[in-house]
Amino acid sequence: MENLDRLLKRISAHIFKAGGIDKPLVTKRRSRLCVGVRASHRYLIPDGVVLNVSSSGVTYFMEPGEAVELNNLEVMLSDSEKAEELAILSFLTSEIAESARDIKYMLDGIIEVDLAFARAAYASWMNGVRPIWTSEGCGGISSSGGDYLLSTDIEGIQHPLLRGTSRKHLSNIPGSNSLNSMEVDEENSMLDTGKSSKNVPEFPVPINIKVKCGTRVVVISGPNTGGKTASMKTLGVASLMSKAGLYLPAKNTPKLPWFDFVLADIGDHQSLEQNLSTFSGHISRICKILEVASNESLVLIDEICSGTDPSEGVALSTSILHYLRDHVNLAVVTTHYADLSLLKDKDSRFENAAMEFSLETLQPTYQILWGCTGDSNALSIAKSIGFDSNIIERARKWVEKLVPEKQQERSGILYQSLLEERNRLEAQARKSASLHREIMELYHEIQAEAEDLDGRVKALMAKETQLVQLELKAANSQIETVVQNFENQLRKASPDQFNSLIKKSESAIASIVEAYCSSDSLPASETDTSSYTPKLGEQVLVKRLGNKLATVVEAPRDDESVLVQYGKIRVRMKKSDIRAIKSEKKSKAAILVPSLKRQVKQSFSELNKDEEVSYGPRVQTSKNTVDLRGMRAEEAALHLNMAISAREPLSVIFVVHGMGTGAVKECALKVLGQHPRVAKYEPENPMNFGCTVAYIK
């Protein structure tokens, strides 16, 4: 091939130089390499063979005589190569044919695994939950806490197709990196389900589907565009997804029966080709559904027997529903026939449901009210669309004539009042739940602080014990030095100098011992609890705190009450609930906190001057704590100013500045000293290192 290519390039260059072609051209025609030449210059290849001609007839594609043998060899070798390839492929095909069963088994396994991963990916993308099947005996209790059993209990489900479209739309919004944290404006009327807003509804609106055990037919009534068909479709799609092993976009744990068939008649099936009107197309589909339905089927019928005379439509609908009651697991139908809602009064296997409609906004809320019957609200919807007001008013007069004694109006007022009462109770329940959650958070924080105090006391004891050991070691070292010097001087001194050397060494040792002795010791004698009066800064045992060690931060009052501090908590206790520490415990306290009493007295000296002002409980929580650690001084000052301004009057704020270089602490103290809302502040103390407490006016 290299020789053939080199030969043809040389011939093509010769033709180009002779003006036989615009540029050298080597190409392939009829599986043979050739050169291009103008028809007027074909004489340049006297022994050439014409293989092809261009469509214009200007260019000939010719095979030079020198290239014929090489082209023949190339064709022969190419045929041999193809034959060898065919032999190899035939061999591989036979090998595969022998392993066809194993390969098919492996392919089925791969398909099964791929399907499982696809279901898992879809569940993760939709934030879905796993549904469970309810048995024939309805062995499940209502998730809302009712005492009745539910065969179908799906809470907060969104239409899967609308949910997928919504999430795809949100994923295309610039700057949104996570489906769980995406939000869009009110113009799109959509918001991610993880962060619902009060002003922007969720899209699609989640609904609750709750069917009692033993119910066979559910009749859904309500306004047009109220969501009846969408809710029914949601149930059907959820049933099919559950059978396919897919998770549902719902809350908690959805429960529903196993349906062998999901049979639906939704939409208009009129056909000119099949000579079917709206009603006949509708009835023909219902007829096919009744033929194949079994006692484990789910039947969904939209606007049952509509498009015909209302009286005959009601009669035929009633007969169909009675048949479905006895032959299917569950049938859900939508209708505007009010008479179908009366079937529940005669048979408990029937259930009513209504789509909620707000008379204030004249808009549907798309929520299902189970056990209720709904009005069509046709006149209200026509008015909201912009229909002629004279026509609507005339229609209202006809309604008053058709409905004697204004029963419908009274029913509507009662229905609306019940909705308002339900909304009020739901708002109170949400407020109570929020308050309970805040109280529990505060309780857990205080409980965690109390549980941590024992560990902090042990840590302080270990630290103080280590310091005492270091001081003891240093004192022994100094005494050994004095003794060694005394021995060295004793060898060189004369006998009359012995007394002076002894006195000098004794004086040095006494000064060392005096330097390391604690001047703040507690009395070792046992104190009588009846005549015992605690002193400011003294360590005492509090009975009501489980005999925990606390510090007296305020001298006893005339009413026999004492203010003590336990960790970060200050509490006023009766004098009878406080008892002195035994001698061995007091000695430990003297070792642990030799300077604690002085610091406690200093930190509470200003507080005693202002006893008449109450700043609320002095308990540190996450809501009254400002953490400035890790910030620069300017950033810490700005953050602290904002926190002080946001605090309510007569409250306490804990400023955590840490123990580092001291720059943040100095900046924080400067801000606290200059801020007009800060009445006073307490610097850090041994019970609360790295934290300053400020009192807000």
State the low-pLDDT regions, or none.
140-148, 175-200, 518-527, 583-612
Distance between the termini: 98 Å
Order of neighbouring strands in the sheet with most strands: 10-11-12-8-13-14
Number of β-strand runs: 23
Task: Give the overall silhouette.
Answer: flat
Overall mean confidence score, pLDDT = 78
Strand content: 15-25%
| Secondary structural class | alpha/beta
Count of separate DSSP helical elements:
16
Output the radius of gyration. 47 Å
Largest sheet: 6 strands, mixed
Q: Give the helix level as a range of percent.
A: 40-55%
Can you offer a commentary on this structure?
Keywords: ATP-binding, Coiled coil, DNA-binding, Hydrolase, Nucleotide-binding, RNA-binding, rRNA-binding. Helices cover 45% and strands 18% of the residues. It has helices spanning 2-17, 68-98, 100-126, 160-171, 228-243, 278-292, 310-327, 343-346, 378-385, 389-402, 407-492, 498-516, 583-592, 596-609, 633-646, 663-674; strands spanning 26-29, 32-38, 49-53, 59-63, 132-133, 150-157, 207-212, 217-221, 251-256, 262-265, 298-301, 330-334, 350-358, 363-370, 539-542, 548-554, 561-566, 569-574, 578-579, 625-627, 651-656, 678-682, 691-696. It is built from 16 helices and 23 strands. By secondary structure, the chain is α/β, with parallel strands linked by helices.
